[in-house]
Specification:
Strand content: 5-15%
Number of domains: 3
Largest sheet: 3 strands, mixed
Structural class: alpha+beta
Shape: flat
Radius of gyration: 36 Å
Distance between the termini: 86 Å
Length: 551
């Protein structure tokens, strides 16, 4: 007998397709409040694509099996026809009347009858089985065609809805608006940083930038950024806090760079810099002024060692990717002759880690070991040379649960941990002595956000008060903006309350505003962009992780 293929339950594959549909719906739902939470989204999309690919393979296998089964059943149909004919003949052959008139012995006739009856029963079972198999085949073929159509629709939906994400993954830290050149210059001036690392001396604290500052009027509104600027790689203040908590350099580096190892290589020789060739270990690295040497005497010596290893790795990776030369400014790593002449315990950290570099366990290669002063308690994942760093909450409990109070950066005393920014890189404040806005100024910002949320147009939303440079002639005045937003839910004249939601990925997800015109919810990314365009002077949100305060 030709073997039969049992297909099993016809709804298993359908359930799998249905699960894929639910996953895609979940992806779209999670994208709605914050498309920039791509760390999780990218993983979900990747998983969905893998499952669709797997489903397609299963579909192809099932299709081939059905083709084989159809050929098999064609043979079975011929055999079945023969068995039906035989069954009919045998069933007629042994009627009671034939047995009564038979000249053979009764015992012999009964034996033959029993034997033929057994064959008849077997043939009957086979015929029934064939019929069921043919029925199952037809049902599965119908189900398969339906699932093919559904899978094709899911693939098309995936491509249409999520295909754009490849270039949008980190939009919470960038600006996707097609800004005018003038607007771009405004944003660049506002967001330009001082030295992104701590530097040779820790940044001083400005009392006016603190949340407890009294602006002299009420109600008052301000935006406070957690960390700045890129929040990728090692947090220097976080490393300082971890060292003070007893962590060694290797533990610190693994916390920020992920699945890595510290490996010792031969680093004798020189490095090409923008000021000429310098002995790598004894001159260039000793002259790196990216972390205060005094931290070594304040419980942070392991942080100095972690910084030395990160700086060494960064330099080696940069010379490989930058035609063998590295600059000596903050655009690369700051090299200072002053630090070289008086390195303090920094020199000891360089010597104690001589030749030590960071390598990815996944690739076995070094990569760009980014670092910055303060990340606000949450680090963003980034990729370099095939290695991806983790997205982490830089807290003593290891998650968002004890943030912001138990962040290592806060414990280390970073003045950038939670700050209201109102001065440019050149220390210009454009007539502002603090980051606080009065009710009229903040309502104007909210009207701008509301207008963009409805019209998707930035063209007239640049600042019109205490402008950086000359005010943009295309920007609407406060009164004109109020008129323009009149049919879009505004104009808003007063703010009752304001709050934010934080994503698990380390961003401000939503801004919620209760106003005299009702309640509104805006995405954190959109609010940050419009706020930075419209807010007067150099008042700015520096980080994708921020808070809004009313007092």
């Amino acid at each position: 007998m030709v073997g039969l293929l049992v297909l099993g339950k016809g709804n298993i594959f359908a359930d799998e397709i249905e699960d894929l549909g639910k996953q895609i719906a979940a992806i779209e739902a999670s994208m709605a409040p914050l498309k920039s939470e791509s760390s999780g989204l990218a993983q979900k999309i990747s998983t969905a694509k893998i499952q669709i690919s797997s489903a397609e393979k299963q579909m192809n296998i099932l299709t081939q099996k059905l083709i084989d089964k159809e050929a098999d059943l064609e043979v079975q149909k011929i055999l079945m026809n023969q068995r039906v004919r035989k069954y009919y003949i045998n069933s007629k052959k042994f009627s009671p009347l034939v047995m009564f008139f038979s000249s053979q012995g009764t015992d012999n006739i009964l034996q033959q009858y029993t034997w033929y009856q057994s064959i008849i029963s077997q043939d009957k079972n086979v015929i029934t089985g064939y019929s069921l198999e043919i029925d199952t085949l037809n049902k599965n073929k119908t189900n398969l065609e339906a699932q093919k159509i559904k899978l094709a629709a899911l693939k098309k939906s995936m491509e249409e809805r999520f295909g754009f994400l490849s270039g949008e993954i980190n939009k919470a830290e960038t600006y996707k608006a097609e800004l005018s050149q003038r607007q771009q210059n405004l944003i660049a001036e506002k967001t330009a940083m001082f030295n992104t690392s701590v530097g040779d001396v820790s940044s001083s604290e400005d009392p006016a930038s603190r949340a407890d500052y009294n602006p002299g009027f009420s109600p008052a509104f301000a935006a406070f950024s957690f960390g700045a600027p890129h929040r990728k790689g090692m947090s220097q203040y976080g490393a300082f806090g971890r060292a003070k908590a007893g962590q060694n350099y290797e533990t610190i580096l693994k916390a920020y760079y992920g699945d890595i190892r510290v490996e010792k290589i031969n680093t004798d020789g020189s490095i090409k810099t923008s000021i000429g060739s310098l002995p790598f270990e004894d001159n260039y690295l000793v002259g790196i002024a990216e972390m205060p040497a005094r931290w070594g005497d304040e419980g942070g010596y392991e942080a100095l060692k972690a910084q030395a290893i990160a700086a060494r790795t960064y330099a080696l990776n940069s010379t490989n990717s930058l035609a063998g030369t590295i600059c000596i400014t903050e655009a690369c790593q700051v090299y200072s002759k002053t630090r070289l002449a008086s390195p303090g315990r920094w020199k000891q950290a360089v010597e104690d880690t001589k030749g030590m570099v960071i390598k990815s366990n996944g690739t076995g290669n070094i990569f760009s070991t980014m670092y910055a002063s303060t990340a606000g308690g949450s680090l963003i994942s980034y990729s370099s040379n095939g290695h991806s760093t983790p997205q982490i909450w830089d807290t003593s409990c290891g998650n968002q649960g004890c943030w912001p109070n138990d962040s290592y950066e806060k414990q280390a005393g970073s003045s950038w941990y939670y700050k209201g920014w109102y001065k440019t890189r050149s220390n210009a404040s454009y007539g502002r002595s603090h980051p606080w806005l009065n009710s009229e100024e903040f309502s104007d910002v909210i009207n701008a956000v509301l207008y963009y949320s409805k019209a998707n147009d930035y063209g007239h939303l640049s600042q019109v008060q205490d402008c950086i440079g000359s005010c943009d002639g295309n920007a609407w005045s406060k009164d004109e903006l109020r008129r323009q937003v009149g049919d879009k839910g505004g104009p808003i004249s007063s703010i009752n309350s304001i709050s934010v939601d934080y994503s698990t990925g380390g961003f401000t997800k939503n801004v919620k505003v209760s106003t005299d015109k009702g309640e509104f919810t805006f995405s954190g990314e959109m609010f940050k962009t419009i706020f930075n365009l419209r807010a007067p002077g150099a008042i700015v949100i520096k980080s994708g992780l921020f808070n809004l305060v009313k007092k």
